[in-house]
Amino acid sequence: MRILIVNPNTTASMTATIARAASAVAAGPTEILAATSSMGPASIEGYYDEALAVPGLLAEIAHGERNGADAAVIACFDDTGLDAARALATIPAIGICEAALVTAAFIAQRFTVVTTMERSRIPLEGLVQRYGMHGKAKVRAADIPVLSLEDPTSGAASKLRSEIARALSEDRSEAIVLGCAGMADLVSELSHEFGVPVIDGVAAAVKQAEALVALGLSTSKRGAYAYPLAKPYIGALASFAPAVLAL
Ligand code: 5HY
């Protein structure tokens, strides 16, 4: 099976980190197709970046489905454009936040998401509510800009470690969820270091995608995720009119 992983920010080096994490857990026959959005913000830090990352993400999902992907993973912890992707595509579309939270809930009753910045923490609290995890999950920010994760000299990894240590002692968390796709390469060292399960959403989403494809399930086209209605879009978004993108 072919799993498309879209990084909805435009930083290709982060896509490479994401692709490595995905390939490391993919089953033998699974092919990972990694794509970087071709338009929009370099990193997604808050609501404005998120909104403007959605068109590029949708273009990659449409392209991937047309070219035979069996499932799509949105590799941003804000689950950027997830509902729109599900409306656009028939193949299952999985967000790394939802996949990580569901996975964590299987193995721990109380866990903490450690994300990048305060402006990201607040939207993630909204996702925790949306996914019904507010009785189990707390969200913390380590005060690290997303792209500092790409720079080993930035001190980001040590700030992340300090926040994980605080989560374990102050929240009494039983597991840690990494709240940014750019943290995917740290998962195994952090789980060894802290002695609790550490969940990376990229890996969790790949395994969820494999499960859905193996079960022969695709996105329901009845109701919320029905295909968008054909109509003109104008201006810079003219090429996104559903008649053009429809698969
Ligand atoms: C992510 N931003 O996973 C999120 C994390 C965040 O560009 N990739 C991003 O800080 O919201």
TrEMBL record:
Which top-level enzyme class is recorded in the Swiss-Prot or TrEMBL entry?
isomerase
Q: Which InterPro entries match?
A: Asp/Glu/hydantoin_racemase, Hydantoin_racemase-like, Iso_Racemase_Enz_sf
Q: Which residues form a coiled coil?
A: none
Query: So where does this one cross the membrane?
Result: none
| Gene Ontology molecular function | allantoin racemase activity
Asked whether the keyword Heme is assigned, the reply is: no
> What Pfam families does the database record attribute to this sequence?
Asp_Glu_race
- Source domain of life is Bacteria
Entry EC no(s): 5.1.99.3
> Which keywords, in A-to-Z order, does the entry hold?
Isomerase
Similarity-based family: Belongs to the HyuE racemase family.
Supply the name of the protein: Allantoin racemase
